[in-house]
Amino acid sequence: MQDHEDTTKMQNKHLHRKSKKETKTTTAESSTDQEGYLIQFAWDKQANFLNAQSRAMGELRVLIKQFVSIADEQDERRKKLELMQVHIDDIKSDIRRKDNAPEKPDISSSYVDALKGKASDVKK
């Protein structure tokens, strides 16, 4: 979230109260509208966006599963989906392998510093 001070003021018109009055001779309905403002802060906007994106991704996942169950085994689009899944699995395994690999110490800067120290000893 880049701008946490971002706010949006939207006009919110909703039905406040609806009543029905009945007398012996007439029936009257009355309602009162109330206008107000709904203030939406940046974190509310981001939460709404993330929820909408999550719902869309879930729907896409369901639609892909339905397509795979319906599609013929030899369908080219099904083969492309399988290829994409293999690529995703490869990327995930690369990430896991990099996360589990021990970090190599950065010796280049200390090596250069040591050489500079030796060079200054030689100049004297």
TrEMBL record:
Residues 1-32, 96-124 are annotated as: Disordered. Residues 11-21 have a biased composition (Basic residues). It comes from the Bacteria. Residues 96-106, 115-124 have a biased composition (Basic and acidic residues). This is Uncharacterized protein. It comes from Sporolactobacillus shoreicorticis.
